[in-house]
Amino acid sequence: MDFELNETQALIVKSAREYVERAVKPVAAELDREARFPLEQLRGLAELGLMGVNVPAELGGAEAGVVAYALAMMEVARGCASTAVTMAVTNMVGEVITSFGSAEQREKYVTKLTSGEYVAGAFGLSEPGAGSDPGGMATTAVRGDGGFVLNGQKQWITSGSHAGVMVVWARTDTPEKRLGNKGLSCFLVEQGTPGLEIGKHEEKMGLRASETVPLTFTDCFVPESALMGDLGAGFKVAMMALDGGRIGIASQAIGIATAALEAAIAYAKERKQFGQPIAEFQAIQWMIADSRTELDAAKLCALRAAQLKEKGEGRFSREAAVAKLFATESAWKICDRALQIHGGYGYVKDFPVERHLRDVRVSRIYEGTSEVQRIVIARSALE
Ligand SMILES: Cc1cc2nc3c(=O)[nH]c(=O)nc-3n(C[C@H](O)[C@H](O)[C@H](O)COP(=O)(O)OP(=O)(O)OC[C@H]3O[C@@H](n4cnc5c(N)ncnc54)[C@H](O)[C@@H]3O)c2cc1C
Hints:
Blueprint: H1 7-24, H2 28-34, H3 39-47, H4 66-79, H5 81-100, H6 103-115, E1 121-124, E2 140-144, E3 147-158, E4 165-171, E5 184-190, E6 196-198, E7 212-223, E8 227-228, H7 234-270, E9 272-273, E10 276-277, H8 282-311, H9 317-341, H10 353-361, H11 370-382
Helix pairs in contact: 1-4, 4-5, 4-7, 4-8, 5-6, 5-7, 7-8, 7-9, 7-10, 8-9, 9-10, 9-11
This protein binds flavin-adenine dinucleotide (FAD).
Flavin-adenine dinucleotide binds at residues 89, 123-126, 131-132, 156-158, 204, 207, 212, 362, 365-369, 371-372.
């Protein structure tokens, strides 16, 4: 086991940190306040190769690996959680098309995602009636003349109106013969395809500069070439993508919690009560110590899962679930303690910790809730 970063990883961290300090962190509060999509920041990330960190260079990616991706995600989330989630989904879409797409699909879409020509990609799995149980989805894709006709609704789609391409799951089995998870297939749908309608932007508690929209497909025709992977193999694609995605969300939570802890430490050294900085009270020190410990442990779990994925020697579902569960639950506590250390000032928008607390909350929900992660971990422990 080697805890040293290699040259590529160190370079990715350095360039991500420099860019975030200069162009992302200073505008994060404003983006949040105005619920403004971070177009400029995402273009900057693409220029640095951060929209395809683990994508091969021949497709325009940085080809820097999964550990580098996790580290870059931590850096970006430390500056702006909304920008980070948009980056996370775009990286996930680029990777999933790289892994499961045809040569033509890879060439057509991945290069546009990595270059920033498409400012984002989207991942269309959840539906109004199918969240934790994607096998219960109702969107259908029926084979027609030269392609498929999609009908149904998707819910909570990150970057849905900005994405150049969306990975969309739909049922390709029939009402007469339902095949459960084996009845799902995966399609690549371009923005602007007739029959695809983008719904009202969700008014979210946090991650306000990221975009979350419902999608409606009404007799939406996609050509045969839009099918990604085999017919009926969509569930496997989704599960494998989510295993990797969970490393991204664990890293996002770690980045947010790092920002919160840094803010708490700075405040505790400055704020005086009873004639001394509050950092000198043991109660405050213990909160900082607990946060530091949980953050380190979360980082180790996330990087272990990232390293396993990078090795490519098999599934890493349990390690990814452990990382996501521990990192997101800890990050929530760390952000809450940071707010507590700020006293009343933590509760107002003059300080960043209330934003960190709002932003981090959803990491316990998306890409599999904490309960779903526990199911994955328990299943693996008990088998
Ligand atoms: C801001 C945001 C962005 C998102 N982005 C995307 C995106 O880009 N693409 C996408 O496809 N989806 C996206 N999602 C959807 C997200 O992945 C789902 O919200 C999540 O999977 C949970 O599904 P649900 O909301 O339907 O909750 P439900 O599945 O209805 O769960 C409700 C509660 O029941 C619990 N529960 C459910 N089943 C079990 C069980 N078997 N055992 C114990 N407890 C259980 C859950 O843990 C939860 O506490 C996003 C969501 C949000 C809020």
